[in-house]
Design goal:
alpha/beta; eight-stranded parallel beta sheet; 11 helices; 13 strands
Length: about 290
Amino acid sequence: MNALTLRLSNDDLRRVVEDVDAVEATATALIARSAGHEDYTSLATAGAAVLDDGETAIYETPQDGPRCVMSAAGLREYRLAVLTALATRHLLVPGVVTASVIGSGLALELQLAVLRTHVPNVSHIAVATPGNQPPDRAVLDRLDRDGIGFSLVETPADAMFGANLVVLAGATRLGTPRLAKGAVVVNATGVDLPAALLDGVHAVFVDDPEGLADSDRTFVRTHRGRRRGGRGHRSPSVVADLGRVLAGEHPGRTDHDHVLLVELIGGGTELDPVLAGRIHQAAAAAGLGTFDGN
């Protein structure tokens, strides 16, 4: 008999962050991959895989085992949000987090949900959705419920002012906002940042160095090795991947005042069976989603 299929909506994905252990699972996978273990996906259920038909991600286990269907875009954006949480926890100067999240739609809402749930000491989040609808009210209500202040602002510059964590969850015109000393900037947009913004960055970290090598991104080539006049440090270059930082093989931040950029490249791991399996387990345990037969 075929197993039932659990179907998750985007709202289910927003809610499952309450219970899923995705952050630790993703950290373990990053460390394994950084160490050169090509079989890092063995951290998933044996034989599990994620199929992608363009819009839908289908998590499958062998021999008519459990199946779970969710938005492919949602799974990718959830992974980016989890990586944001990991980068924040390991690269931001310890203390109170004042965050800025710029973007729209599900990408922005998942970033807010994961920050609220998996990043400690968040005191306030400024949200900018230039030209787009603001986040769903339920997402903002959960921030308020957890004692996290929030403000909806008009421009990215307004959101980024004074923030020590800046999360870019959607491509938008950023201008030349000033970054606070010691800030961590996470670029989850998949596009290059303006040169003027990169000019304030001291070092770059990536989630996937192999994905960077295979991508058409140009920020490293165009900014590596040039010395900025009067700044006393070189233009930003990639210093390590997150897996090395998590494993303790790279110190991460080396100066409290340095601005660090985290470029989330993704490579071929956006539809991660480790993450998809954790989502499926947590959603089923929480009674989320709907079941149907195959």
